Structure formats: structure tokens, C-alpha cells
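INTERNAL AUDIT FORM
Audit reference: QA-55
Scope: verify that the stored structure record matches its stored sequence.
Auditor: D.O.
Record contents follow.
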Amino acid sequence: MYSKTIPTGFPKGFLWGGATAANQVEGAWNVDGKGLTTAEVVKRAADRQKLTMNAVTQESLQAAIADQTETLYPKRRGVDFYHHYKEDIALFAEMGFKAYRLSIAWARIFPKGDEATPNEAGLKFYDDVFAECHKYGIEPVVTISHYEMPLGLTLKQNGWASRATIANFTRYTEVLFKRYKGIVKYWLTFNEINASTWGFMGTGAVDSDLDAAAQTQLRYQALHHEFVASALAVQQCHQIDPAAKIGCMLARMQTYPNTPNPADVRAAQLQDQLNLFFTDVQVRGEYPEYMNRYFADNGVTLQLAPDDEAILKAGKVDYLSFSYYMSTVTSADDNIEKASGNLNMGGKNPYLKASDWGWQIDPVGLRLSLNEFWDRYRVPLFIVENGLGAADQLTADGKVHDEYRIDYLRLHIEQMKEAIKDGVDLMGYTTWGPIDLISASTSEMSKRYGFIYVDQDDDGQGSLKRIRKDSFDWYKKVIASNGEDLA
């Protein structure tokens, strides 16, 4: 008789915490030698339904460089984590964080991206941040490139469209691995690497003057350069600090067929393949066969160096991390009703509720994704982004009653527990974002995710005072009970 004990809860040492990105929290965009980044030349959206993160032209780029203010470019100010990091990390520690996922601003280390030596002031800042984390027993989980690169590399070689950027990146990663050996145990190479197929935010390449076919070609070639750079960084990390673990990161787009019509089922299968393609390369170390036809059908011809395939094979990641916010519906019919979403648009699911921003809320979809990842890859999984963006309001007595956020997170954590019972190896969960920050897609402040309210509006006005929301105490209780007390 076959019998095996089924896990009943989260494993010991589970990495509970929260996640942020340098370009959305740090501010101090021109302090201590830091260079301008690609994130800091993207304007705030005038309409929150019209995302701006890829709306960059040569003209808008030059205008942004000439504008030395923060007014139109909120990521330049963030929420001033640069000067508030001790206060913010202390609040994370008060909640009981086991891990804090943050990113390093590449342009703090190499201001233009191609310098021979790093900027010591930038390295010292992260020395201090990591020391503050360790003071409270919090493990830093560090993203090496989170939707930003030195703008100098865009101006010089159009970002990741150039193979030369690989060497710039690996010089940067070597500095990080040597500097933070024994200090950072968990690394990620690129945040939501699939965003590179949507344009500037992921590639740092201006392609607005190209037609659709040429854009597609450029973006997949840029992505290939990122794959190679990631694989080389994995090898560097393993050599420099064998005790560290390094993973990839995907924006998971769980998709369902709109109907049982085989045409809809096939359309959904293709969308799923196009989402999992990125992790197929980074976890399995090779391009999957189904992409051969996709590239042929879309006129994409990748330029590979002779050693690239061997590099990908040798640079397989140790774990798979991903963001999960919503699911989508796919149909063979282009006239299907659309819903808003994270980075891309899909069909509207009539069985699901939606957030204030129209993102459909689907906790069961998280369990489905966890199972699919585990069945497909058999490597540890790490949910490094999941959360609810909402229009939080302060009450007259200075409180934020965000029971809707508690409900959202509770439902997703319950499905994580179910996935663990299914046999999934889940190593951690860092919510997005533990403190209010600037939105990646619209650069607004009104879309709030945090357990901690930051007194700042879309125009940058406010005291920057940090205020605990109701969800702060709830998450503290969740962590203390290792996910058992969700009431």
C-alpha cells in the first residue's frame, strides 16, 4: 500500500515578508552619484486605464532628460525610502518579516552603466540597508534588475537591444556577488522578465518608431540577450558564493479558455505557452520547441552567438519566483469583452470580482499556477509578488480600515496552503508592496498596496508620515502563526 503524509501547513522557515522595487520607493534619484534610469523618464499616466510604462519615444526621452524636476516623473521621488529605510525596515520587523524582497538600482552602482569601476556611495547605501535587515533577522531577497537600467545604456546602445549590454550587466553582477557574499542569500536576476516582450520598461530600448513586426523582432532579440546575461549571472553567483541561491522571476498570467470550444482551448494553450516560455528557458536551460513555430509565424529570427545555447544550459536557476495578481480569459474570438490587467489585457471572467482598477480577483488561480509550475519544473517556488491595489482612505482619526485587502490576502494564502497539501514545494511569500509606493504601470500614488500608509498624494504633496493600516496587525498575526491564524 502506498501512503505518504500530506503537509498540513506552511513549512518551518517559510519566508514571509513583503516586496518593493528601488524605482518605486527609494527616491533620491540624483543623490550620491546616482545616474538617471529608464524608469525615471516615464511620465505619470493622465488616465489610469492608459498605461505609460512603454510609451517612450526619442522626443519624450529628450524632454525627460531636460526636465530636472520630479513633477511629471514620480518614480524620481518614490516614497523616500532612501532616507526612511531604517524606519521602514523597523516597521517590517514589527510585523515579523522573515524576508524583504528589494531591488538594487543599477544606476546607483554604475551611474551610466558602462563605467570601469562602481560608485562606492551606491554600494555603501545597500551595505547599510542589508545591515538594517540583518539587525532584525530579516533575509534580503534581492532583485538585480527591476524594470530599470542606467539610462546611459539606452542612449549609447539602445539598452538590451545591443548584445554589448550583456557585458555591462555581468560587470555589475560580479560587483554585487563579491560585495554581498554571505550577506545576501537569495537573488533574482530580472523582474517579470516577460515584460520585455511588451517594450521599453523591460528592454530599455526605444522602439516606438518601428512597425509591429520590427518591434517584435527587437524585443525577442533583446530578451535573448537578457536570457544570456541571466545565465551568466547564475554561473557567477554559484562560483563566487556557492551558498547563495539565485532564481528567475515571471509575471504569471494564468489563463482559461472562454468556452469548451476547441478553438478557445487551443488559444488558451498558446497563451499559456507564451507565458511559460520564459521559465522554460531559465529553469530548463533551453528554448522550447513550440517557440520555433511561433518565431516562424511572427517573422522572428534570433541572432545567437556560438556559445549561447551552452551558456543557457549551464545557467539554470535554483528556484522559480513569480508574481501573481489575477487570471485572464482567452478566446479565439477577438471581440470578447476585455478586462483590465497586469501588463496585458485579457477577456473578462463573469465568475470573478474585480479590484478598483479592474483586475480580476482569482485566488484559486494561484493554486492552479503553483501546481502547474511544480509539475512542470520540480524546483522550489517563491511567490514574490501578490497584493491588492486599492484607493485607501484615511479616516478622520488617521486610520485606514482595509478589510478588503485582508480578505484578498486571506483567500490567496488559503489557496497557497491547499497547493502545499497538493505537494508543491513553496519556499516563501512576499506581498506587494508592504508599504505604499509609486505604481509601476501608471506612476500614481493613489493605487495603494501597503500594510503601511504613506502620506503622499499623486502630486508628491504630503508629510511622508508612515501609518499602520488594519492589515498591518493582521499580517503580523499571520506571520507569527506561520500562516495558521488567518481570521
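Auditor finding: record pair retrieved intact. The first strand starts at residue 15 and ends at 19.
Action required: none
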